[in-house]
Design a protein that fits this description.
mainly alpha; 0% strand
């Protein structure tokens, strides 16, 4: 029989797998985060250019924004620090440079909040902002499931990578074998991103992704598209 500690670890791992699963019914599949527009513009057109795009977004985006923010929000939930939760939730919204990127956060957040409510997992309403974003609720869920912070960041990064490759498989198109090659290529970069995100100071936070912002803005008026962003 497993020890109590081992059982808790197993449940935390399963909780993380549930949270990052593409089957989680929050609609993440509907968003490309500007990638569809990058295809349309010809900036990303094959496996090497997709690898370069994803590496850049990981290094200058997730490493400096979502990943360190999850760590901070996780600690804020640990201490039931409502002010810090609200501060970082608003900070993230302020970093979103297009209407589509703001809408993605808010819609996924609303969907995840409804799901957590149906599972009786929501915290006291006083602890959450009125309309918490997806990253904020992801951090809360990881905390509620007792997922260690580092594993929560790895899980978030993994879900982002899988979603981006699913977009490429539908819209580039990219073959599934090529997608697996990219996963093998980017797995070490994801670990490095988490390492760096965990040591950044507050003043070092903030995405530096002008290309993604431009692609997302152009996507808002793209004539033919499969994705909402």
């Amino acid at each position: 029989m497993p020890t109590e500690h081992a059982a808790e670890g197993d449940l935390a791992l399963l909780g993380l797998m549930q949270l990052v699963s593409p089957a989680l019914p929050i609609g993440a599949f509907a968003f490309s985060q500007g990638l569809e527009s990058a295809f349309e513009l010809g900036w990303v057109h094959d496996e090497p250019s997709l690898a370069a795009w994803l590496s850049g977004v990981l290094e200058d985006g997730l490493t400096r924004c979502e990943l360190p923010l999850i760590a901070r929000l996780y600690r804020a939930f640990e201490h039931a620090d409502r002010d810090a939760i609200a501060q970082w939730d608003m900070w993230l919204t302020a970093t979103r440079e297009t209407a589509e990127l703001v809408a993605e956060d808010s819609r996924l957040g609303a969907s995840l909040k409804r799901l957590l409510g149906s599972l009786d997992l929501l915290p006291n309403e006083d602890l959450l902002p009125t309309q918490p974003g997806y990253v904020t609720l992801f951090a809360f869920t990881a905390h509620a499931r007792r997922v260690p912070v580092r594993q929560a960041l790895l899980g978030f990064g993994w879900a982002w990578l899988e979603n981006q490759l699913a977009v490429a498989c539908k819209a580039l198109p990219l073959g599934h074998t090529a997608a697996q090659r990219l996963i093998e290529q980017l797995r070490p970069a994801l670990v490095t991103a988490v390492d760096e995100a965990l040591v950044l100071d507050d003043q070092d936070l903030g995405p530096v992704l002008p290309g993604l912002a431009l692609a997302s803005a152009l996507h808002e008026t793209q004539y033919s598209r499969l994705f909402r962003s």
